[in-house]
From TrEMBL:
SUPFAM superfamilies (alphabetical): Zn-dependent exopeptidases (SSF53187)
Protein name: DUF2817 domain-containing protein
Any one Pfam family match given in the protein's UniProt record, by short name: DUF2817
Length: 382
C-alpha cells in the first residue's frame, strides 16, 4: 500500500522541500545529478526547481517531467514526479538515459493556489517561437461578450452570482458568448489583462526559463520524452493525454500504440502558445535530427458533461473576479476557494489515489513504448 499523504502536499513550500529532497535519491542512480533553482517574479523565494542529470556515458534519451505550468495544478504534478522517483528510477538505464524533473513552472500560482502567473497570464498560452507571433487581436467573440468574462465589480452573494452567471452562460450558448469563451479557453485571449484565459502581452519569465531547458535537452539528447502534468480536463478520476498534431499521429493510432483510453489531439490553429506545441516547433526549426515526444497529461475532476463545462467556466470566472475585485461576503470567498480546489486540487483520497494509479498507467504506457523504462518495471498495485 502506498501512503498518498506522502505525495500530496498542503502548500508550495512543503511541496518544494519534498522535491528538493528527491535529489539524493536521483543521485543514487545518477551521481552527477544536480538541483537548479531559478527565481521568478517579484518574490525571490518563488523558484522553479529542476533536478537534472545527463546520461552517464551517452546522451541517447531523456525523460522530462514538468509540473505546475498552471500553478495550483502543480500539487498533483509534484506528486507524480515524487512517485516516479520512488518507483521507476531503477527501471531506467542511466548510462544512456538522462532525467529532467521540473517543480512549479509557475511558482507564484502554486503558492497562491491560482492557475495563472502574478501577471494574470495563463502560461500555457504564452510560448511562441517569435514574439511577433503573439496574436493580440485574436478573439472577437470574447470582446463582444466581455461583460461575462471581465471583472467589473466585487463578488456579490454567491447564490446571486451563480444564478446570473449560469443564466448569462446558458443564454450565451445560443450566441457568440459561449463560443467566445470556449474559444478563449482554447486559444487564450491577448487583449484583456484582467480577463480569464489571458495569454500575456509579453513572454513571461517562466516561459523564457523553460524554453532554455527545452532547447538544452534538444541539443544534448538524441531523443526527448516530455510529460507535462496538469489537472481538471477529461473524464473524472482518469488521465487524458493531450498532444499537438505536430507529433504526426492520429488519435486512433496513438491509442493503439500507447494503449491509453483517453487521448486528444489538438491543432495549433485552435490552441495558441502551448508549451508542448512550442517544443515541436523548436525541434522542427532547429533540431530536426532529434526525436521528440511532448504531451500534456490531465487528471480529470468535474468531468466532460455540459453541466461540468458550465461549472468549470463559473469557477474560473468567479475566481478571477474575486482576485481582482474582492467581496464583502466571506461565504462567497469560501465557496469560490472550495470550488477552485474541487476543480484543480480535490482533497478527496479517492481522487488522489486515482491520480497516482492513472499516472502509473500513463508513465508505463509512454516510457516503455519509448524505450525509457525497461520492461521489468515494477508492477505494484494499490
Ligand atoms: Zn493545466
Amino acid at each position: 500500500m502506498i501512503d498518498i499523504h506522502n505525495y500530496f502536499k498542503n502548500d508550495y513550500e512543503e511541496s518544494r522541500e519534498t522535491f528538493r529532497g528527491l535529489l539524493s535519491k536521483v543521485q543514487k542512480v545518477w551521481p552527477e545529478a544536480k538541483l537548479y533553482q531559478h527565481s521568478i517574479g517579484e518574490n525571490e523565494d518563488n523558484t522553479i526547481d529542476i533536478i537534472y542529470a545527463e546520461a552517464t556515458s551517452s546522451n541517447d534519451k531523456v525523460a522530462m517531467l514538468t509540473s505546475g505550468e498552471h500553478g495550483i495544478e502543480g500539487y498533483a504534478g509534484a506528486a507524480v514526479i515524487h512517485l516516479f522517483v520512488d518507483q521507476y528510477l531503477e527501471s531506467i538505464d542511466p548510462s544512456i538515459t538522462g532525467v529532467c524533473f521540473v517543480h512549479a513552472i509557475n511558482p507564484w500560482g502554486m503558492r497562491h493556489f491560482r492557475r495563472v502567473t502574478e501577471n494574470n497570464v495563463d502560461l500555457n498560452r504564452n510560448y511562441f517561437l517569435e514574439e511577433t507571433e503573439i496574436p493580440y487581436d485574436l478573439n472577437e467573440n470574447y470582446e463582444k461578450e466581455s461583460h461575462i468574462f471581465l471583472p467589473k465589480k466585487p463578488v456579490d452573494l454567491i447564490s446571486k452570482e451563480k444564478t446570473e452567471l449560469y443564466e448569462a452562460l446558458s443564454k450565451g450558448m445560443m450566441n457568440e458568448g459561449y463560443k467566445g469563451i470556449k474559444q478563449a479557453k482554447g486559444m487564450g485571449q491577448f487583449q484583456f489583462d484582467r480577463g480569464v484565459y489571458f495569454g500575456g502581452y509579453d513572454e513571461e519569465q517562466s516561459a523564457s526559463h523553460i524554453k532554455t531547458w527545452q532547447r538544452h535537452l534538444l541539443e544534448q539528447f538524441k531523443k526527448v520524452i516530455h510529460m507535462d502534468w496538469h489537472t481538471a480536463l477529461g473524464p473524472t478520476n482518469e488521465v487524458t493525454m493531450v498532444i499537438s498534431e505536430k507529433h504526426g499521429k492520429e488519435e486512433e493510432e496513438l491509442k493503439a500504440s500507447y494503449g491509453m483510453d483517453n487521448i486528444q489531439v489538438f491543432s495549433p490553429d485552435d490552441v495558441k502558445g502551448d508549451s508542448t506545441n512550442y517544443f515541436y516547433e523548436l525541434r522542427e526549426s532547429e533540431f530536426s535530427s532529434t526525436s521528440l515526444f511532448s504531451a500534456l497529461f490531465e487528471f480529470g475532476t468535474f468531468g466532460t458533461s455540459r453541466e461540468a463545462e458550465l461549472r468549470e467556466f463559473t469557477t474560473i470566472i468567479l475566481e478571477n473576479q474575486l482576485y481582482w475585485e474582492g467581496t464583502d461576503h466571506p461565504e462567497s470567498r469560501e465557496w469560490i476557494r472550495e470550488e477552485l480546489m474541487n476543480m484543480f486540487y480535490p482533497q478527496e483520497d479517492e481522487w488522489k489515489e486515482a491520480v497516482l494509479q492513472e499516472a502509473r498507467v500513463a508513465i508505463e504506457a509512454l516510457l516503455k513504448e519509448e524505450d525509457i523504462l525497461q520492461s521489468s518495471a515494477p508492477n505494484q498495485t494499490f
